Amino acid sequence: MELLLQFLSNTGFYLADYRHFVMLAVGSLFVYLAIAKKYEPLLLLPIGFGVLIGNIPFFKGFGLGIYEPNSVLHYLYFGVTSGLYPSIVFLGLGAMTDFSSLLARPKLMLLGAAAQTGIWVTLLSAMALGFMPKEAASIAIIGGADGPTSIFLTAKLAPHLIGPIAIAAYSYMALIPIIQPPIMRLLTTRKERLIHMPEPRDVSKKELMVFPVVGLFLCCFLAPASIPLLGPFFFGNIMKESGVVDRLANTARTSVIDTATIFLGLTVGASTQGDVFLTTKSVSIFLLGAVAFSIATASGIVFAKIMNLFMKEKINPLLGAAGVSAVPGSAREVHLVGLKEDPTNFLLMHAMACNSSGVIGSAICAGILWSFMM
Amino acid sequence: MYGLEAISAYNGWAMAITGPLIVMSGLIILSIIISQLHKVVAIFDKKAEQTTELPTKNKVKSKNEISVPKILPNDILETAKIYQMIIDKIEQPFELNDIYKVAEQNNFPHPILTVSRLRDAGILICEGEGLFIWNR
């Protein structure tokens, strides 16, 4: 009888408190959104299931939890805390990215820079709310709308906040179809949304091959702290464009990035243990994340409208919303909003140009923030 | 510490001004460079073309190259003599596609029309199953 009671006192049912159930509900919601609503399933399913795994109550000291040394989850979590997974994700991302639309229309790169404004406004807001500078910088990078970049910077500056920041960053990326379209419609007129973009010029293979080298030199000389992200990113891209290592490029954009995404999502999800995660700080991070993401979207659109004041050939301001680096979610959303107004207006290719420059922009921002905090 | 006091104490204003300026100027420079990239590539391409053109001016025709007149003679037997050079390069029996390939590689004028004339003249004989032989 005593043995039975001892066993029962070690079960999850006995050890659970309300925080576990809150987080289990959140995890279940993520899994539901991923499967039923198909909101970024590649991210939300591993994270959601990770939340479920991480919030099953257990007897501390058995080496089971993600924060306990020697546990399997702890070893897998090393890829997050060391910044390893984000670098691998960037390698795969580079091997997927086609820069031809950006090379054909380089001025769209400015929208990728403008959309980073959300990061800097959020930095000030987080400081004003009482966060320490390193914490504020980690929260601010959510405005870049780039999950791996957010995780990377937080791992370097405020590792204790990885859980809430990663969840916030990925949640907002998944919620792009809900967050971005109202902002786009609010800040643009119908006439502006109807602007057609001209066909981009043909870009030669040589240009595509030279770009990763030029991009690497310029971006990494400017912000060397972004090397762990932009180095693999441009390497992945040159593997793709050179055409001499198709096998490697193909592996990078499929098996390698997929493996990193699985473990990144699962361990980030598992890191949200109720007792560690459910704090007032986490709530503030979620609110600041929403502010950062919305400002980033808005600043891209407003900057596109400002550019139109000086340009003969107008650009569709919706493209500014794709300046955040949520690839390819925000580009797809811009395309869909454009199509809703005019079914013959195809903005996807142009939006991808802004999106890829957003990836570069947010990685540079991460590098700059990191160097500011050194 | 909260509010504006915290921002000032942590040097927030300077960061929020310097940071976006660095990002913007970096991406502006990158966009200027990539907007000129196609011109730079074109210059290198032109130079490469010039250096490869020089030896080709004086090049000696290789053994594999066939010299073809710009207009083929009206006499089908004369034309057949020229096409004989193609036939020597391929094994018999052959598909018509083999002739077209070699003809196109060596800039033979109107290969499809000529092959049709050679068939009509009984110089190209069909062996069935898409294969042909050359009537010497």
Question: Judging from the principal axes of the Cα atoms, what is the shape of chain A?
Answer: globular
Rg value of chain A: 21 Å
Task: Provide the helix percentage of chain A.
Answer: over 70%
How many separate domains of chain B?
2
| Structure summary, number of beta strands of chain B | 2
What is the residue-mean pLDDT of chain B, rounded to a whole number? Answer: 81
Q: How much of the sequence of chain B is in beta strands? A: 5-15%
Q: What low-confidence regions of chain A span 5 or more consecutive residues with pLDDT below 50?
A: none
What composes the largest sheet of chain B? 2 strands, antiparallel
What's the SSE pattern of chain A? HHHHHHHHHHHHHHHHHHHHH
Mean pLDDT figure of chain A: 90
Side by side, the strands of the main sheet of chain B go 1-2
Count of alpha and pi helical runs of chain A: 21
List unreliable stretches of 5+ residues of chain B.
none
Q: Let me know the number of strands of chain A.
A: 0
Distance between the termini of chain A: 58 Å
Specify the helix fraction band of chain B: 55-70%
The main pleated sheet of chain A reads as: none
> Could you say which structural class the secondary elements and strand pairing of chain B correspond to?
mainly alpha
Order of helices and strands of chain B: HHHHHEE
Number of helices of chain B: 5
